[in-house]
Amino acid sequence: MATDMRGNPLTCTAAAAERLDGAIAKFHAYLADPIADIDALLAEEPDCVMGHAIRAGILATTTDKAFDGELQSSLAAAERLAPRANAREGAYIAAARRWAAGDLQAATETWGGIAIEHPRDLLAVQLAQLGDFFLGQSQMLRDRVARVLPHWHRDMPGHGFLLGMHAFGLEECGDYARAEAAGREAVARNPRDGWAAHAVAHVMEMQGRAADGAAFMTETAPGWSPDSLFAYHNWWHVALFCIDRGDIAGALRLFDERVSAGGFGQALEAIDGAALLWRLWVLGHDVGARWSRVAPAWSARLGHGVYAFNDVHAMMAFVATGDAAAQREVIATLERAAAGPGTNAMMSRDVGLPLARGLAAFGRGDFAAAVAHILPVRGIANRFGGSHAQRDVLSWTLCEAAIRAGDARMADAMVAERLALKEGSPVAQGWAARARAMARPLAA
Predict the structure, then answer these.
(1) What is the pLDDT of residues 306-342, one digit of tens each?
(2) I need a labelling partner for 59 at 20 to 30 A (CA). Which of 92, 149, 207, 209 fits?
């Protein structure tokens, strides 16, 4: 019986435990490549059950069916070794199996339960928080971390990562001052902590502090950018700051040089690529041939139907490129998912389908229908996951659709919401000017 660096029990050799610690530390910082490190360990010690279980958990939380074969292989190996696993390792296997079976909620609670039993198990906290993120559970993004904090102290290895996770949860719950302080402290302690830097970026995005956000991310980039598997998302945030400051050329340059750097090889990258170009395309900016770099990633995933959040972003690419057949396939995929089992059925039924239909309506110029589909869903869009910053694309689309529909009252309402959040934004001011031009007096 061995333990990891924080005293959590493992049924492997001490040497294997040390190597697992190294791979997990990379995952905490989203540095390349923890899977390669685990594979190297398993090549030498194939009976390391926790190695297979961790590998399965990491692959599961990509929310990408492209990795399903690898996930199933890891699960099969872990389950063969389950009789020799301890209770903690068995719970890791169960969580990954539940996620693979489509029950994201049960998987997340299983990882959360591990953290309750072993509050110094930072990986369990991280995987549970990722589950909360994909489920759109803002409160749990915060509380999942808060419940283990009393069992940690500043000098424990990984404490800074825990602060970064807490910072993101605080931000998603609107506690911006505490979130920024925790995120900045985590980055100061470990400049390679891209998740903590990202938490601070979220604070500044939500507060409309585009100049501050761009400066902070640019200053900290030398720490989190090299060898990071998460850098594309942090640069996506910088691109959003560029758009909000009216620097469209800067946003496109970041798409070319940073956001697309990974070639959109995984769904999470393709989400950011589509979301960035959609914001620009909706505003009427010429994005050139850039959609041709994102759309193939979604074409390769047509029909997967594992996570409605992915499907809605695929729809953005197909609407912008005018691919009507692909749009119909996305709708059909969401309809099948909505009628099926698992967490994604609710996500597809309640949120994914109406949003996809609304985006399709926007694309064919039926802006009133776009508003009709999207507006009732926006308030419950957390049900299909993502962050406030990611789901903001819905309000963005509603502002433009209401104006293009010529609906003066709706445009006034949507723009008023935007100005209340980001009064100094050139994008918001542009919408406000267009809305004022079409305003009509209130009835007596």
Answers:
(1) 999 999 999 999 999 999 999 999 999 999 999 999 9
(2) 149
Q: Which residues, in sequence order, are bridge partners of residue 419? A: none
DSSP letter at 262 equals T
Residue 349 pLDDT exceeds 80: yes
**Alpha-carbon distances, residue 422 vs 191, 200, 206, 250, 430 (angstroms):** 29, 17, 8, 20, 12
Kind and range of the H or E run holding 10: strand 9-10
**DSSP-derived secondary structure for 281-294:** HHTT---TTTHHHH
**Cα–Cα dist 341/171, whole Å:** 32
Fold of 288-444: 1.25.40
Query: With contact defined as beta carbons under 8 Å apart, do 182 and 398 qualify?
Result: no
How far apart CA 348 and CA 354 sit, in angstroms, is 9
Please give the backbone phi and psi of residue 9, each rounded to the nearest 5 degrees, phi first. Answer: -70, 145
User: How far is 104 from 408, CA to CA, in rounded Å?
Assistant: 41
Alpha helices in 190-266 (DSSP H): 194-206, 210-224, 231-244, 248-254
Does the domain spanning 1-151 belong to CATH 3.30.70? no
Q: What is the pLDDT of residue 394?
A: 98
258-290 residue pLDDT tens: 999 999 999 999 999 999 999 999 999 999 999
Coil, strand or helix at 87: helix
* pLDDT value for 439: 77
Does the model's pTM come out above 0.90? yes
Numbered ranges of CATH 1.25.40 in the chain: 1-151, 288-444
Residue 246 belongs to what H/E stretch?
A: none
Q: Which positions ≥6 away from 409 have C-beta within 8 Å?
A: none
DSSP state for residue 301 in the 8-state scheme: T
